[in-house]
Amino acid sequence: xxxxxxxxxxxxxxxxxxxxxxxxxxxxxxxxxxxxxxxxxxxxxxxxxxxxxxxxxxxxxxxxxxxxxxxxxxxxxxxxxxxxxxxxxxxxxxxxxxxxxxxxxxxxxxxxxxxxxxxxxxxxxxxxxxxxxxxxxxxxxxxxxxxxxxxxxxxxxxxxxxxxxxxxxxxxxxxxxxxxxxxxxxxxxxxxxxxxxxxxxxxxxxxxxxxxxxxxxxxxxxxxxxxxxxxxxxxxxxxxxxxxxxxxxxxxxxxxxxxxxxxxxxxx
Length: 268
Prior knowledge:
Helix content: over 70%
Shape: globular
Number of strands: 2
Transmembrane segments: 26-44, 84-106, 118-146, 166-189, 201-219, 225-246
Order of helices and strands: HHEHHHEHHHHH
Largest sheet: 2 strands, parallel
Pfam families: TatC
Subcellular location: Cell membrane; Membrane
Distance between the termini: 41 Å
Membrane topology: Multi-pass membrane protein
Family: Belongs to the TatC family.
Strand content: under 5%
């Protein structure tokens, strides 16, 4: 097969093989994003209307506010259509490039571990979309809070590029953050991260989640940080619960002779 991974007799890949594999995965992802971007270009009017709807709703609900979106120069409209098309391409092609990221990690696992990890690939895409959907759902509330700081009598005239840059980053960051439990459970399934370790470290983990949320969210306000940190905290404990179930299942299927000490005869 043309894309078959070159391996040594010990089943290992050289650094050059890893780099070539990374390049191939990146090219596959880039092509799918480009194809998705074509769809974004075709449906640009609908995408523009959907993403600008929270802004327009706030404007209608606050007619006294002087607030508008503006294209700054002659090329701004074209540039905005290109960037939104790429954004659509990233969302539409997410099953492919998320799989490519996962598949690049899989060669480092044993056959049994790869079989276990396949169960979690199916959860990646729904969780990514759930994060994106949550971001879009809370976006009107976020805009209302941020625009509420505008002093009375002042105008809030935004460049279209700045508004959509904020919206797309906001959506993508939420989508990426929701992948956290998948990777935690996957690490547990292959025996790297026990559920007991995750539970023992819940305090620093939650602190880290809030710090990550503060850094990752595109706004400096605490409101947006909490919108991301609270769901991630819930997902963290959900990952612990799922990991405990996996470990319990492993213990039940574990043969008794494995736990026999070296100086005792096993049942085999």
